[in-house]
């Protein structure tokens, strides 16, 4: 399967308007499951459409499997039908008057694939996606999840080198979304296809992707594995976008008089030096711990007093809301808490659990190793 390389790719829809995609450099590896993740309007769908050939570049170059398919400097443009890609939209776009079997082999018939090969490919993908038993039915007789499988089967039957998916699960209910995530993981493992998947759902990206590219306002914020993105966010935007409940952010402005801000600033300056460019620090809810009734806090932990304001069960875990110097802080636990509203506690966190960002909102260089050494 081919890899995809975007070099300095830009997309602009008119003079005076901001770039929908700006100076994007991205490498999507052979056989990779890449998720383009970001909020609405960040440029992820535009990027997918440029890879597919449905949008012309305003600048830069795209190559697939070593072949340049779109280049402004070289004046090259390869049409979408010649790029060897399959595209599945948010809408399933199934033919309502054709059976499931005929929908699945539609692309093969257009390519005039011989009957025996066509039937073999259709049987293989229908069996893999567990839709063989529906082959004589029509799309209106299937559920949303089953229709989604047919749309995927139609693309997989033509054996595309690259499969492009534009928020294909957004029309499904929660249970079907979960089932289809597992299905997509299985499809990727079975067919080894290079997949580019667009979503604004962080959990979809975290559970599906081998690699995530986080975008915002047309620019690439971070590319990495799901663990990289979650555990070492490159900047404050990535840290705040990924995670539920969201990361707790404490500002570290030198003029801040908030007791929690002052305590966090003093803690970090004592460990990183007075010259460190401190902008803010983030602590994920699951990294925060509570000490009750003057219980000892491990040495070296960041700590601050708080009072419990609410305990919210979510089924299998609990979200605890506390008031910390007038600020709402959230933490999570998988153990049933025995806390009451108004109870006084001590919040604390390991030094290595602190995500420190500079005044430009980028991850502070070298800080992770320094905090990891704190006893």
From TrEMBL:
Residues 4-242 form the ABC transporter domain. PROSITE patterns: ABC_TRANSPORTER_1 (PS00211), ABC_TRANSPORTER_2 (PS50893). SMART domains: AAA (SM00382). It comes from the Bacteria. Keywords: ATP-binding, Cell membrane, Membrane, Nucleotide-binding, Translocase, Transport. One of its GO terms (molecular function) is ATP binding. One of its GO terms (cellular component) is ATP-binding cassette (ABC) transporter complex, substrate-binding subunit-containing. The keyword Cell membrane applies. PANTHER family: MALTODEXTRIN IMPORT ATP-BINDING PROTEIN MSMX, TREHALOSE IMPORT ATP-BINDING PROTEIN SUGC. Belongs to the ABC transporter superfamily. This is ABC transporter ATP-binding protein. It comes from Cypionkella aquatica.
